[in-house]
Amino acid sequence: MFTKCPGQDPRKARAEGIICSNCGYLAEIFSDEIKVKCPKCQSLICKERLPSCVDWCKAAKECVGEENYKLYTQGKVLFLKDKLIKELEDYFGSDAKRIAHAKKVMEFAEGILKQEKADWNIVMPASILHDVGIKPAEEKYGSNAGYLQEKEGPEIARKILLKLGVKKEDIAEICRIIACHHSPGEIDTINFKVLYDADWLVNLKDELKDSDQEKIGKLIDKVFLTKTGRVMAEGIYLE
Question: Which of 3, 45, 77, 188 lies at a C-alpha separation of 20 to 30 Å from 25?
Answer without folding.
Answer: 77
